[in-house]
């Protein structure tokens, strides 16, 4: 696996040239990652290592950047859980041996790791919305369980929390020193990996992690749609999108050949291997620098991985072109975006509750939100991805509020469909809040076509 180690060093440790303010001169064109280290053509192994998001050198970030006369009012953070053990195994192979206990002298490490474990082990009295109170507060199995957060996943979010703390609390004083429980809004799905990721981020973020002030609400849906989850038209878009995926796969003879070769190696029918979603397990081997599995019939190898990953990249490209996923995303993301602008509007009225909102979620949460916002260049959410909405007030015109959208530390505000032309027409450095409100209340439905002007009608449109 020496090649892998070299690639990891290449992706994470090459010094990056930056322009003024530490921002790459090309960052307005490309959302991710840094142009200096990015290969000229899409390299499947490079893409996979970006997805792993292995903690190494501290990353630059653009969160909290604003002209001095702007005041930060509220922050809304959407995260994908950190690195996890696979959800699927390659049939008839040994599971990758990864330790899910948290150990101080093992890489990756964070200075707050021991304190985090100590704090979590005392937190069993914390009251969360059911069924969250039955979940473990940190990973703790010598051999990871399926889908369990790893030490890498915990460190990724301790790092995210520390970064946001330095910007939002130390620099911008978003929360007062005597902050109270009602100034946070915390919500997670019912998986241990999302609850633990949220706790790790909060532990890195809060100056004083007081269990009495931490209350996570449970969200049963990965779309965070709360009471607005029933949406037949959204499901129809999803079915059509899945059909598109299936047809693309059928056209890829190299992919079928690769699945056939791998199925022979592990001695199962090709259909069974495909259903086991081998890419999930293979990514885990790659992210943790563990050799791919071997049997007496041979070894699964890097060439197999490259073919499957290349198809995944091609699928994402076609997905953007065909727009079926966009229809699914607009309806899938509407409830959570509607909730977010509601919070922002209350903050503009001077309300001091829910100044910091955290949604601890999945790739299938972030991906539709990115798509709905029009961020077509954004890469698929990596482990511990963060999407942040900042609300700002102009101190010189206190009635004027603006928003910034950041994805993994990069300002993508002017890549969004609701603000991509704003900076051409206006000298203002940020996007007016009303642009986002208009987008969520009206333009999302316009983008779907048809005559619907609200979420319910769009979800129940006849003749789609």
Cα Rg: 22 Å
Mind describing the biggest β-sheet?
8 strands, mixed
Helical content stands at 40-55%
Average pLDDT, rounded to a whole number, is 90
Poorly predicted regions are 1-33
Give the helices and strands as they follow along the chain. HHEHHEHEHHHHEEHHEHEEEHEHH
Distance between the termini: 50 Å
Tell me what portion of residues adopts beta-strand conformation: 5-15%
CATH 4th-level superfamily of the largest domain: Phosphoglycerate mutase-like
The total count of strands amounts to 10
Helices, by number, come to 15
Task: Indicate the CATH class of the largest domain.
Answer: Alpha Beta
**Overall form:** globular
Briefly summarize what is shown.
The chain is an alpha/beta fold. The protein contains 15 helices and 10 strands.
Summarize the structure in words:
One of its GO terms (biological process) is chondroitin sulfate proteoglycan biosynthetic process. Belongs to the histidine acid phosphatase family. GO terms for molecular function: phosphatase activity. The protein has 464 residues and is α/β, with parallel strands linked by helices. It has 2 domains: 52-229 and 324-460, Rossmann fold (3-Layer(aba) Sandwich); 233-322, no CATH class. The protein has helices at 2-13, 44-52, 113-121, 151-171, 192-205, 232-251, 253-266, 270-275, 278-287, 302-322, 324-348, 363-372, 422-425, 433-447, 455-459, and strands spanning 70-80, 184-188, 216-218, 294-295, 298-299, 356-361, 386-394, 397-407, 410-411, 431-432. Strands 1, 2, 3, 6, 7, 8, 9 and 10 form an 8-stranded mixed β-sheet that branches. The termini are far apart.
